[in-house]
Structures are given as C-alpha cells and as structure tokens.
C-alpha cells in the first residue's frame, strides 16, 4: 500500500483510515462488477481508499475517498456515483415514513443526506457529509434510549474472558 | 456571422465551467498532515490502517459540548473491576490508537499510545495468558481456540501497548516493537520509502 501518500492526504484529521483493495476482495469485486456496468465503473479501477472525520467548529465532518489510479477512471466513477445520490434521496423519503420516523436520530440522518456532496479531485473521487452538535446529541439520545432496555436485560458490556493458560 | 460563433463559444465555455464546478466541487477535503509515528509502524503488507487521536478530540469544543457529565450512566460492574485492576481509564489515559490489518494474511494488530500503569496491567494480563520473555520485552499470548490463531500483547515501550491477532501474533508483536524503535528516529523517511 502507498501508505505515505494516502496517510498524508488525511493525517490532519484526528480520526482517519486508509486502505488498498486486497487481492481476495479484488476477485469478489470483479465478479460483482461483471453483472453491472455501473458497479464496474465504480469498483473495478478502485486502487485504494481513505476515510477521515474531523471537527469544524460545531460540526463533525466526514469524508471517504476512492483512489482510481487515473483521472479518466476517476471521472467515470464520479459520473457513476451520481446514481448513489439519487438512491440516498430515495432512502431518505422511505426513512421518513418508516421505522425511523419518530426516532431522535432522524434529524441527524436528514442532515447527513442534506450535507452530502461528491467531488472529483484528480484521480480521487470524494464523498463527504457533516453533522451538527444538535444532530450528534440526537444520536446520543437515540443510543441511550436503545442501550437502556438492553442494559436492563444484562446485555451491556461483555463479561471478562475466562482465565486460561496454554 | 462571427456573433453567433462567439455566442456559441461563450455558451460552451459556460457549460463546461458549470459542469466542471459541479463535478469538482461539493465535498470539502480532509485536512492534510504529516504521517503520525504510530502509522509508520504498520506492517508493509497491511491492507488497512486506522488512526485515532483521542488527545486532540477530547479537547475539542465539540467533545466538550457532547460530554454527558453528571448524566452519564453508571459503568457496568465488569468494567469497574477492569479499571480497578489495571488503572487504565480509556477516557483519561488513551492518547492515540493505530489499528492495522491484512485481509490476505488474516492478521492484524492494535497499538495503543498513552499512560499505562505497566505493573498493574502486566499482572492483570498474566492471569489470562502465558508470558514469554524476549530481549525486546515480555509477550503475553492468549489462545483463542480457533483456526484464526492467537492474540498477543506486548508493551513495546512504556507509552505504547501492542495487541496483535493471527497465526503469528507473537512474531507480529515483536515486529511492531522493532518498528516502534525505528519509527522514533526516522518516521517520515521510513514512510516515504514505501
């Protein structure tokens, strides 16, 4: 993996991940891409990826980038990714009427979709979004309300592993 | 005759400009920075590396606002026991974390950087696994009773604790210890040689 170049793109963020495409995953992706030309344009030329999250004032920003090796492959993927935006918008309308309708996390999901953006940056395609403090507090409330009943049933932290030697 | 051509050129240029902006803009980039020393320790064949700077995040304005303070729920009993035995409080003592893994080799590791009560933690892990002494330090190995291999734990220096997983967990821990000593001297040069 080109660790140096990938890490330096995102190392100013307090949390980041970088990676390449493992050989085993490459075979699975090729099989998936063979069935769908749009998936093929997004996945086949993908050589690596990075993810970062950082704070910007009261907002928590996050981005994920795909490294496509060449500018042309990145442009093709960028155009194919436009369909992702449409699918996300469809998912949003379904979420509004579905199970998430009354959840405290709903405003956060709406913000994620509203702030979603895609851009081309050389041989990279970047998708980013952000959450505000109030969105994060909504997620925190949702997590607390979900954890509450689970803790009550004794499903909180896993117990310590048994003591054993070799 | 030249006016329609000029108008056409302007329209095409504007369309290209708007199209280019639509494709290029819309997603702000993450801040760039130098490679952290912990990241430089990751093995060459790692397929993914994750890094977290808890020290910076903990002091951010956003984290201060999100802190539940007195409203935080009580800690589970098992975790309280872990705290008492190790004196390692994640929210207080953990500064940086690096997680790496190789899908192809089915191996991975985590390096924690922070303040450790080494005697207490060593005593705690000694009860759970077997200890082997090497020149580089003590390696504690824990059997997972699975074909994926074992788990090894090692203090690679007083501020860094490595936990590795896989069929060669012990070797990985020793390699991380070796890389830690190298990364202290020339992290950037080592990274850019990759």
Structure description:
- The complex is a heterodimer of chains A (166) and B (194).
- Residues 152-166 of chain A have low confidence and may be disordered.
- By secondary structure, chain A is of the alpha+beta class.
- Chain A has helices spanning 3-10, 23-35, 37-43, 71-97, 106-114, 133-152, and strands spanning 15-20, 48-56, 59-67, 117-121, 124-132.
- Chain B has eight helices and seven strands.
- Chain B has helices at residues 2-24, 37-40, 54-58, 61-66, 77-86, 90-93, 118-126, 169-192, and strands spanning 48-53, 94-102, 107-114, 130-134, 137-143, 150-157, 160-166.
- In chain B, strand 5 and strand 6 (150-157) form a beta hairpin.
- At the A-B interface, helix 1, strand 1, helix 2, strand 2 and strand 3 of A face strand 1, helix 3, helix 4, helix 5 and strand 5 of B.
Helix and strand arrangement:
The complex is a heterodimer of chains A (166) and B (194).
Chain A: H1 3-10, E1 15-20, H2 23-35, H3 37-43, E2 48-56, E3 59-67, H4 71-97, H5 106-114, E4 117-121, E5 124-132, H6 133-152
Antiparallel strand pairs in A: 1-2, 2-3, 3-5, 4-5
Chain B: H1 2-24, H2 37-40, E1 48-53, H3 54-58, H4 61-66, H5 77-86, H6 90-93, E2 94-102, E3 107-114, H7 118-126, E4 130-134, E5 137-143, E6 150-157, E7 160-166, H8 169-192
Antiparallel strand pairs in B: 1-2, 2-3, 3-7, 4-5, 5-6, 6-7
């Amino acid at each position: 993996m080109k660790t140096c170049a990938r890490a330096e793109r995102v190392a100013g963020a307090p949390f980041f991940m970088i990676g390449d495409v493992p050989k085993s995953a490459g075979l699975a992706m090729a099989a998936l891409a063979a069935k769908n030309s749009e998936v093929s344009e997004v996945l086949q030329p993908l050589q690596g990826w990075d993810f970062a999250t950082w704070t910007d004032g009261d907002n928590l920003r996050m981005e994920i980038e795909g490294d496509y090796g060449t500018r042309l492959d990145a442009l093709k993927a960028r155009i194919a990714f436009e369909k992702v935006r449409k699918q996300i918008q469809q998912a949003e309308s379904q979420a509004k009427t579905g199970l998430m309708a009354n959840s405290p996390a709903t405003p956060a999901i709406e913000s994620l979709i509203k702030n979603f953006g895609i851009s081309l940056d050389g041989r990279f395609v970047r998708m980013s979004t952000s959450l505000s403090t109030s969105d994060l507090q909504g997620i925190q409330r949702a997590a607390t309300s979900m954890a509450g009943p689970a803790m009550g049933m004794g499903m909180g932290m896993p117990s310590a592993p048994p003591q054993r030697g070799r | 005759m030249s006016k329609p051509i000029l108008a056409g050129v302007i329209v095409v240029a504007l369309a290209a400009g708007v199209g280019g902006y639509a494709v290029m803009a819309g997603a702000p980039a993450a801040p760039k920075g130098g490679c952290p020393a912990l990241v430089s320790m990751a093995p060459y064949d790692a397929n993914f590396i994750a890094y977290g700077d808890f020290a910076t995040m903990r002091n951010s304005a956003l984290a201060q606002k999100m802190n539940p303070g007195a409203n935080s729920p009580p800690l589970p009993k098992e975790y309280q026991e872990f705290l008492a035995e190790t004196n390692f409080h994640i929210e207080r003592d953990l500064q940086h974390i690096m997680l790496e893994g190789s899908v192809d080799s089915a191996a991975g590791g985590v390096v924690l950087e922070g303040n450790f009560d080494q005697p207490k933690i060593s005593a705690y892990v000694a009860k759970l696994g077997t200890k082997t002494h090497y020149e580089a330090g003590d390696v504690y190995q824990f059997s997972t009773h699975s074909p994926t291999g074992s788990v090894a734990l090692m203090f690679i220096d007083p501020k860094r604790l490595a936990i590795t997983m896989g069929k060669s967990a012990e070797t990985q821990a020793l390699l991380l210890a070796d890389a830690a000593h190298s990364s202290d001297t020339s992290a950037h040069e080592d990274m850019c040689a990759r």
